[in-house]
């Protein structure tokens, strides 16, 4: 026998409990209850005559429909006449009594508890001539408190024009009456359509349905104590006595927009179920929140027989959105929650993924209509897959003893605020205990908004006065998030917990254990450029910010030097130089930081690294000097940049002192790399001053090796293959670029040297 999990029993008890309200309902009234006049036409007689209906069409305008924020006109979606509102006059005295009466019954039909009230706000008068219709759609919530739509159909001899309303896989159809006024109400999350009118004219008044009063509070008065106790028992079993924080997420049946979500405004059965869940939670010492859920399901699906009809019959039990596939097996479902409202409707920004073993629902998600879907067709291992996204509302329940952990998972920022509040109130011990509860999940949840949380986290970590918990709180962050605004808090926390604690933290922030791709080179470089400002701020803190700054810069140097070393090994000179030049500002940032911090050891190490005789490194050094140029002369000197500048100048001068290549010197240097017999032949040709071209019979593989060597190092040599004879002949020709490049290099050196002369006073 399959086990029934407590959470499933919970959902099924709730399913049986509700008053079985419907998502739509109909009531009727006598035609004399409506006295309606339209300007220029006069009183409308009921049943509506064809003559008056035609007159209404003549003064009508094509009706628009809402799509997102827009209202559109498209006769393929909505084809009906709308009579201008200003022309419609209804005798209110009589009509309001009828409406109140009808709405009171519809309230009950729709499963809304006594004690709350439905009111209707006139929206539009519509006339459907033969052939006119309105394709499937969902009404937008046009006002706060709007929970549905009321359609009042005037009696007429029309046929067709059936109103079809769908919700959670169920369909209701409403034909208009020849004699009575018909009132159809449905919730705003129902898809509905009007089928084409086949003969005569269909005339309706549409209303926005508003809910007055608190639907959940009204239902609360009528909850069955026995059922509440059973539900509470399910909660106790679900949570058991384990120490792991857990939730129960009960998915409701109706859809809500962010604007429309609120405890007081739950629709239909959701209201009475929510009242029960709240009562059971209270009995089981749990807390609750209302949330919006996005459910993503992935199914294995199979192509189905196409049925080819546009207007589906209502009695078919398959209500697939387009009927061309059938669901076979659920591969995966993920539920994420946002927009968390506690019992007082107070909102907490949330972004939380919940696990399947904490989710339950009375109506399975697959019975609802997805707001998006994509059919992948055949996909490797799985065959055809279908992905669907649904929006549902959810009630989240958790034991009060885990309140802090559960809320912290939903909103880490809230957790930090709460810890700060506790500290401020003098409850440091309680704050410490609460913070310790975050340990199992903090590194995962804090990553989401880490950037905005670092400042608060530093302060809280300091105030807890507990090194282990403080380190746990700070571990999820990355060095690139640290800005000058964090300096004071960082210095304070470092002084409080000491050197080796800080060193450990800084290492983690630099991603010692983090895959390299997580912090891109680019982000790191930008951060290094900002490091002097961070160090400035650190130096200004009353605490010992300088030693933190030294720790940071020392930790930054190792990976930066490795980047430079890696870049030096790029074979193509153009890439190598571009990348080395890009690293210059980061190198400058770090060097300037050493000046602020008087970190002479690190400075000397960096200066020595930059001052070796290497033409490639010169590119990086020049770029660093240019980037640091805006710093004051004293700072540049303290950063050792004057030494770097002198080294570059000397190296440039040496290079410029070399004789200019004579016009008949065609020798080219082949960079080291390969010593194979082909490369030796190639080298002999390249270094030969006199030879410009070389005809070299070579088989394909061997030709390819030679090509690769030439291209890899961007040598000024053209390679062509003459496709005659066997093997083909590789024709190598040294190009004029050899001379052009040398001229350009010399010019660049001159410019650089002149710039150094202008900008340095030390020479
Ligand atoms: O004409 C009807 O019955 C429904 C009209 C409608 O769906 C709307 O105005 O949004
Ligand atoms: Fe509608």
From TrEMBL:
<feature type="domain" description="Fe2OG dioxygenase">
    <location>
        <begin position="119"/>
        <end position="211"/>
    </location>
</feature>
<protein>
    <submittedName>
        <fullName>2OG-Fe(II) oxygenase</fullName>
    </submittedName>
</protein>
<dbReference type="InterPro" id="IPR044862">
    <property type="entry name" value="Pro_4_hyd_alph_FE2OG_OXY"/>
</dbReference>
<dbReference type="InterPro" id="IPR005123">
    <property type="entry name" value="Oxoglu/Fe-dep_dioxygenase_dom"/>
</dbReference>
<dbReference type="Pfam" id="PF13640">
    <property type="entry name" value="2OG-FeII_Oxy_3"/>
</dbReference>
